[in-house]
Specification:
The protein has two helices and eight strands; from the N terminus they run E-H-E-E-E-E-H-E-E-E. It is an alpha/beta fold.
Length: 125
């Protein structure tokens, strides 16, 4: 079976969401149109932002039903990313905390998609 390499988030305003993710990811999208924006990350993973008003078949899900997860190299990087994102005005759903898998926090994008940043605690695995 092939491995997933692409996720699409259904958004209200793709161009606005694209601008949000461009700042968050520190890169420009590789494709932009009024109904779709796509980023390709360093590891080849693709993030698509598709207008919930144009998707076929119609998208019924809204933000909050899944998470886009970003791994960082250390617990300190979790805290630093949290400080950076909070300073940018992102809505923080969960402050940095230690969980059974490691240190983590959760923020929301403009469409309420959950963005989890974490550092895996190797001793817990």
């Amino acid at each position: 079976m092939r491995s997933p390499n692409f996720i699409i988030l259904y958004v209200d305003k793709p161009e606005a969401s694209g601008a949000f993710y461009a700042k968050l990811l520190g890169r420009q999208p590789v494709e932009t149109s009024p109904t779709f924006v796509m980023f390709v990350l360093d590891n080849g993973f693709k993030l698509g932002l598709w207008s919930r008003h144009a998707a076929l078949p119609a998208a019924s899900a809204a933000g909050g039903g899944a998470e886009l997860v970003l791994a960082v190299e250390s617990p300190g990087a979790v805290d630093a990313t949290h400080s950076d994102w909070a300073g940018r005005g992102l809505n923080i759903l969960q402050a940095p905390t230690d969980m059974d898998f490691g240190r983590t926090f959760v923020a929301l994008d403009p469409d309420n998609h959950r963005l989890r940043v974490y550092c895996l605690d190797e001793a817990a695995v």
